[in-house]
Amino acid sequence: MGGGGSAVSRRIGACDKASAERAALLTLSLGVLVSLLFLALVPLNLKIFALMGATGATAAQASAYAQVLFGGAVVLFFANLATALLRGEGDARRAMYAMVLGGLLNVGLDPLFIYTFGLGVVGAAWATLASLFCSALLLCFWLFLRPSTYLRLSLRKLRWDSALVWEILAVGVPAALAQLSMALAMLAVNGILLRVGGERAVAIFATGWRVVTLGTIPTNGMATGVTAVTVAAFGAQNAGKLRTAYLYAIRLGVLIQLGIASFVALAAPALGLLFTYSPGSLGLWEDLVAFLRWMCLFPPTVPLGMHTSAMFNGAKMGGRALLLTFLRTVVLQALGG
Predict the structure, then answer these.
(1) CB 223, CB 265: distance < 8 Å
(2) Cα–Cα distance between 144 and 88 in angstroms, integer?
(3) Residues 246 and 297 in one domain
(4) Do residue 120 and residue 188 come from a single domain?
(5) Burial annotation 27-37 (CB, 10 A radius, 16+ → b, else e)
(6) Which residues contact 210 (CB under 8 A, 6 or more apart)?
(7) Residues 153 and 200 in one domain
(8) Stated pTM of the model
(9) Domain span at 98
(10) What gap in Å lies between CA 88 and CA 76, rounded to an integer?
């Protein structure tokens, strides 16, 4: 995903529109091919959830949910790749519109599939897939049919370019491995907590981490912008603009995260109560508040790693971005824990 968007931005920065369109088409084609490989995971997903500690009805429901999404991986991949390409050409507004449409549809379709159709947990997966399909249709209209976007894609323009494919994969594969390392790190941390503190520790961590993840959403959004801007500057051979964009994003990101961390520290009792108001979970409140206050040290450091990785991806240094993420998640977070 990141490899295609960065390849497009580099060529736009170099004022090579034809090559940018070819990079976009190759990215979508590679995404479809990779999504087909996910179909092989459908019969394995029950074992995957068993390895994560899920058993019985929980594992069965998680497996059924995953089967629907893995089966519709083509839609999922296309929607995510298309929004990345729009951001890569600087059209973040349309990418946002598509994501908002999918989110609102998901909220509306969830009750319909879960309760009206009586599908339960599997219904939530079908609602997600249906909303993504609608977003994908809108993105397809913008990219292939409507001439108002900068990139005007047509399958007639699709040409195999080994050098371009390698450039996309050189950034995309390390980025995918970085995401995998984060998932594996979370799996390792959950395993450690389960052995040390049991289900109580896992529940506190999972709930607290959800709050922390919400707090880092602005940094995630800025990282996308960092990649797009630094890639364009790199393509235009403008080192000064690249440096300015990167350092500005770091400063602004740290300031925003300091504000969010301060809010979480002050509002930790109220935030903890939002997740522990039921009689069965009220006993977790005190430990959850303590967790949130300790974790306030974490958000201000997030822009340093995330925006640096985004800049490395923009500058065709996906290996360095992967190494940075691996050190942070696997070495320091999982093994250090």
Answers:
(1) no
(2) 16
(3) yes
(4) no
(5) bbbbbeebbee
(6) 275
(7) no
(8) 0.72
(9) 1-160
(10) 18
As a dihedral over the C-alpha atoms of residue 222, residue 228, residue 232, residue 235, rounded to 10 degrees, the angle is 120
Q: Indicate whether 14 and 75 sit together in one domain.
A: yes
Whose CA is closest to 292, among 205, 223, 228, 217? Answer: 205
Q: Which token pair is 265?
A: 């520290």
| Structure confidence by residue, pLDDT tens digits, 149-170 | 788 888 888 888 888 888 888 7
Structure tokens at 146: 């409507």
Check: CB of residue 233 under 8 Å from CB of residue 14: no
- Please, is 261 exposed, middle or buried when counting C-beta atoms within 10 Å of its C-beta (0-12, 13-18, 19+)? buried
Q: If you write DSSP's letter for every residue of 314-332 in order, what string do you get?
A: HTT-HHHHHHHHHIIIIII
CA atoms within 13 A on the CB side of 26: 24
Query: For residue 75, what pLDDT is reported?
Result: 92
3-class secondary structure, 70: helix
User: What's the token pair of residue 241?
Assistant: 């603009």
Question: Burial level of 155, CB count in 10 A (0-12/13-18/19+)?
Answer: exposed
Find out whether 268 and 292 touch, Cβ atoms under 8 Å.
yes
Which residues in the chain come in under a pLDDT of 70?
A: 1-3, 41-59, 147, 278, 280-281, 333-337
Per-residue DSSP letters for 158-206?
----HHHHHHHHHHHHHHHHHHHHHHHHHHHHHHHHHHHHHHHHHHHHH
Q: Say if CB 65 and CB 122 are below 8 A apart.
A: yes
Rounded Cα distance, 219 and 299, in Å: 9
Q: What is the domain count for the chain?
A: 2
Tokens of 100: 């908002």
